[in-house]
Amino acid sequence: MRKFVGEWLKFFRKIYMKAKITVTLKEGVLDPQGRAVMSALNQMDRESVNNVRIGKFIEIEVNEDDPQTAEAAIKNMCDKLLANPVTENYKIDLLPE
After folding, report:
1. Quick check: is 67 in a domain?
2. What is the reported pLDDT for 68?
3. Other CB atoms within 10 A of residue 61 CB
4. In CATH, what number is assigned to the domain containing residue 85?
5. Nucleotide-binding among the record's keywords (predicted)?
């Protein structure tokens, strides 16, 4: 019961951390989407674009007041769902709200 009350208070007091996650392809992984965008940009701009890599940007808010706990939870989310560990790297920037 005590844990439930603590979680309830966190929710209503708006104690949370915000994370900005940048997911990029690992070096050496082919990027067909990036190549398609580069080709289109070169057609528009007379071949001045040398390379394009496409990634993802994700913002998450978690109900945690401890930065280490929040980062561990977000890292777990990235490892299991948000990024493919075989082909992608990710960077977490944690911001207190």
Report:
1. yes
2. 94
3. 13
4. 3.30.1280.10
5. yes
